[in-house]
């Protein structure tokens, strides 16, 4: 983002970057940047907190009026709320077994509730309905290389199915009641669900595959490093 | 180390002291693009500026192909797009998605820009916004930046808010 700010400014446009990793802004030196301590993935702040998001945006846009640059790198003073775990959050009930199909089916009503609550879903990268995921995953685990018409390789089909599984579970985890922290969603998914175990199994299968694309993609993009074991 | 490798190791934490070793040293020593000079374009008061968003979240319109890994392309996002038609296809799996799942404004603050336009704090919100794959080498994005600049000029947009993930 900092490099693109340089390039846009060279073409005559004023820019301001919200920077999540301060050291990158220090090195790349964009014309104007506001560093925030927001976690990666939430650069503007906490979800459904317009006042906090507005404070962040106002602070960033205010840098456009400064005349003492380049380079302007300011720190946003407030830590976003929402980092700590929420003791009032109740995790969805999961099967505690390795039956992904049954677990997924049981979570679908919560996923529907999440869509009603948030007015949307972030599931859809993989071009497959949730009902197709268990059989597709089983085929990969059995050593097949299934494909779908919309994506060119098995590797991409599995990768985006994994993204969709995580998205559906993440939304189900936030469907009702008080919001969990990001850490609570991750811990629940990777430690307490059959889906988390499935993704670890898919990673192992992919890494043992003779299909180089699946091996590479599976090793890097199915399971985040802390949750591999 | 490529940018994507950083994204694979930093996880959710953006404050250096929160990043465990040895990842912290990796982050602090990350090679970044260097520029001989820094341009600095001034403009009118915010109340006269129309603002566009450029996000590195690799957003796509539902039904479109996800961004390929390493793609230097840009995709245009109409301001009027429905939230349910936006998907996030960034390659990294090590940043938080739970916030995005609840509220697109954590990444793509279109409603907050509308709020500021409604109160007259900014002059307006662009009709078109922009998204790229953040893990890509910026040197591969010259054509994309030209495309963005062309559309900005066409819409008479003078200011861009850049958001990472």
Structural class determined from secondary elements of chain B: alpha/beta
| Rg over C-alpha atoms of chain A, rounded to the nearest angstrom | 21 Å
The major sheet of chain B is characterized as:
5 strands, mixed
Mean pLDDT of chain B: 87
Count of DSSP-assigned helices of chain A:
9
What is the count of β-strands of chain A?
3
DSSP strand (E) fraction of chain B? 15-25%
Shape of chain B: globular
Structure write-up:
The complex is a heterodimer of chains A (229) and B (165). Chain A contains nine helices and three strands; from the N terminus they run αβαβαβαααααα. Chain A is mainly alpha-helical and 229 residues long. Chain A has a three-stranded parallel beta sheet with strand order 1-2-3, with helices on both faces. In chain B, the strands form two sheets. In chain B, strands 1, 3, 5, 6 and 7 form a five-stranded mixed beta sheet that branches. Chain B has a two-stranded antiparallel sheet with strand order 2-4. Chain B is globular. Chain B is built from five helices and seven strands, in the order ααββββααββαβ. At the A-B interface, helix 1, strand 1, helix 2, helix 3 and helix 6 of A face helix 1, strand 4, helix 3, helix 4 and helix 5 of B. Strand 1 (14-19) of chain A pairs parallel with strand 7 (159-163) of chain B.
């Amino acid at each position: 983002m900092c490099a693109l700010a340089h390039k846009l400014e060279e073409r005559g446009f004023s820019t301001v970057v919200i920077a999540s990793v301060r050291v990158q802004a220090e090195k790349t030196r964009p014309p104007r940047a506001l560093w925030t301590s927001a976690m990666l993935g939430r650069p503007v702040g906490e979800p459904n907190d317009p006042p906090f998001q507005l404070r962040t945006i106002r602070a960033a846009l205010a840098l456009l009026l400064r005349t003492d640059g380049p380079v302007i790198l300011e720190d946003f003073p407030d830590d976003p709320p929402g980092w700590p775990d929420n003791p009032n959050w109740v995790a969805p009930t999961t099967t505690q077994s390795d039956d992904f199909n049954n677990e997924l089916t049981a979570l679908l009503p919560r996923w529907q509730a999440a869509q009603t609550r948030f007015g949307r879903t972030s599931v859809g990268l993989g071009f497959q309905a949730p009902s197709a995921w268990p059989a597709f995953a089983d085929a990969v685990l059995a050593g097949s290389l299934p494909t779908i018409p919309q994506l060119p390789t098995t590797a991409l089909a599995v990768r985006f199915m994994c993204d969709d599984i995580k998205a559906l579970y993440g939304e189900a985890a936030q469907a009702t009641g008080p919001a969990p922290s990001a850490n609570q969603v991750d811990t629940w998914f990777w430690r307490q669900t059959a889906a988390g175990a499935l993704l670890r199994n898919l990673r192992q299968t992919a890494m043992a595959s003779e299909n180089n694309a699946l091996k590479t993609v599976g090793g890097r993009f199915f399971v985040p490093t802390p949750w591999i074991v | 180390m490529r940018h994507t490798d950083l994204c694979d190791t930093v996880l959710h934490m953006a404050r250096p002291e929160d990043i465990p070793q040895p990842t912290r040293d990796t982050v602090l020593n990350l090679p970044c693009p260097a520029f001989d000079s820094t341009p600095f374009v001034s403009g009118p008061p915010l109340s006269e500026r129309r603002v566009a968003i450029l996000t590195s979240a690799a957003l796509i319109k539902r039904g479109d192909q996800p961004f390929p890994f390493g793609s230097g392309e840009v995709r245009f996002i109409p301001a009027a797009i429905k939230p349910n038609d936006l998907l996030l296809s960034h390659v990294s799996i090590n940043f938080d998605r739970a916030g995005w799942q609840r509220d697109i404004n954590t990444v793509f603050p279109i409603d907050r820009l509308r709020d500021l336009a409604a109160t007259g704090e900014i002059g307006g919100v662009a009709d078109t916004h922009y998204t790229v794959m953040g893990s890509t080498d910026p040197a591969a994005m010259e054509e994309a930046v030209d495309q963005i600049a062309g559309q900005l000029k066409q819409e008479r947009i003078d200011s861009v808010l850049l958001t990472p993930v």
